[in-house]
C-alpha cells in the first residue's frame, strides 16, 4: 500500500464496512497436523469454551477434574469469574490456548474479555486484551438491559474488542492487511458508532471510551518450524513471547514517558496514548519475521503484571502455575486464583502455546527455565515480602519501620532487575517520538 | 506454592499528598460548610472509595491553602497548613478548616492563582513509591493575573511566578526541564467556573487536569462531598 493510499484510507470510511459481530473464522488444523489432516473437523465456530460451562465430552481429553490449589482461595461472596480454555483433541495438541478474566467489582470490571482466535485455513491468529481506563473514562455512559450503568471505560474496552474481532475476520479473509493502519481505522469506526454521553467533567485527563489494547497477530511459516509475530498496542497493556530457553520477552513498549519496567511498577505513571473516541491515538507495532517454536504468546492487562514486585515475578507467576497444573483448565484456574490474591485491579490475560506436542510437553519444556528463574530471582528476596500487610495508614512515627522495609525491598528489586532486564528487553521496540 | 509475589504491599500502595486550595471569600459558605462537616471523615471516605476501586493508600497527607483577595485585604489573603498526616493529624486538619470564615473578597476575581502557585511549590513526598501529588482547587470565581494585585504587600508570597507562562513552566509538560512537580505523580482537579484562567488555559492546555465546572458566584453548592472524593479518587 502506498503512502497516498494510507492517507486516503485514514480520511474515508472503512473500505470494507466492518461486519456485524458474529462467530470468528473457523479453526483449521494446527501446525504438525499437516495439510489435509481433517480441515473439515475443526472444533467449531467458537475458538474457546468457557470452563465454567458444562464441558462437552472430547475424544482425546482426559476426564480430569481441575485440581483445586490450596494457596489462593476463592474470595467469599465473589461471583466466579470467567475463564476460557480451548483443549483440542489429538490433532490439535500443538495449539493450546486459554484466557483468564477477573474483575474487582462483580459486573463492573473495565477489562473486556480477552480475545483469542486462530484461523486454520491461513494458519494465522491473534490474542488480545483490553483495559478500559477508569480514571479517564469514569462517566456513566451506557445502561445495560438489567438497568446497571456502565462507564465509558467499560464501553470502550468492549467496543475495541468488537472492532478487533471484525478486523481479524477481514485480515483472515484477505481483505485487510495485518497492519496498524487498518486496525486503527476499524477502532475509529466502531468507537464513533458506540454510545457516548456528554460529561460535565472536562480537562486534559478526560477521554471518551478510553481503553488500552495489547495484541499479537501471528502467522506460521510454511514448514511450521517458526512463526511470524506482529504485536499491536496502545496504552500500557502488554504482549510477550515466552521461550523455553530464554524466558519471557516483552514485545510492546508502554505508552508512558517512563519505559523502565521496574520504574513503571514503582510509579504507575499516566499513559500518553490510549484508544478513545474523542482524540487522536496511535496503534504501535513492530514486526518479528521469524521466531522459533515452541513458544508461548501472552497478552495481559496491568492487573497481572502491574502489582508484582519485580518484572521477573510475572514470568514466575506464569511458570509456577504451569508447573503445578495438569492440564489447561488447571493452569487457567491457578492463574486466576493467583492474580486475585495479589492484584489491585481488574486483570485479564490471553495465552497461546504454539508448537508443543501436548500439555505434558508444554509443562516439561519450561521446567529448566522455572528452576533457573527461581534460583536467580526468587531466592534471597526480603522476608518482609511474606508478612501480611498492615491495615490502613498510620501516622508519621510508625512509618519509620515501613521505610526501612521499603529500602530493603527496593535494593532487592534493583538487584533482580539488573540481571533480568537484558533478556526481558531483547525484543523491546524503540520508543516512537510522540510517546516519549 | 511459595510464590514471588507475596503479601507485602508497601510499594504497591499509593502515597497520596493532596493540597486543597479553598476560596474563602464571602460566597463560598456552601462548600466550606461541606468541607468542615466532613473533615474528620475525609481519610476514611477516601480510603473507602479507593478500596472499591481495588486500590489502597500507604500514606495520606493533606495540606490546606485558604485564599481570598490580596486586592481586598492582604492580611488574610492566604492562610495555610503544612502537610498533615491523616488520620493521625485529623484533629489539626479539622481545627484549621473550622477556623476558616467565609468573608471578604472585594471585586469578583480572587487570588486563586497565588494559592495554586503555592500548592505547586509544596514540599511533596519524594521517598515512597506510587506517589500521587494532587492539587484540588475550590473556587466560584475567576482569578487575578499573577503579580498584578497586591503584589507589593508584605504578605504576598515572595517566591512564586509572576506570570501565567512562568506558572505553566513550573507545572511542566512533556519533556519539560522546568517542572517542579513530578510528571508521573501530579494531578490538578478543579472545581471552578468555566472562566479564565480555570477553563482556559489551565483545564484545556495543562496536562493531567480534571475540571468539574461550577456555577460562578454560587459557592459550589451543587457539589456533595461524595462527588468531590470520587473525583479525587478518579484522578489517582
UniProtKB/TrEMBL annotation, chain B:
Transmembrane segments: none annotated. It holds the Pfam family VWA_4. InterPro entries: HMCN1-like_VWA, Thr-specific_kinase-like, vWFA_dom_sf. The keyword Mitochondrion does not apply. Signal peptide: none annotated. Residues 19-144 form the Hemicentin-1-like von Willebrand factor A domain. It is found in: Secreted. Keywords: Secreted, Signal. Its main location: secreted. This is VWA domain-containing protein.
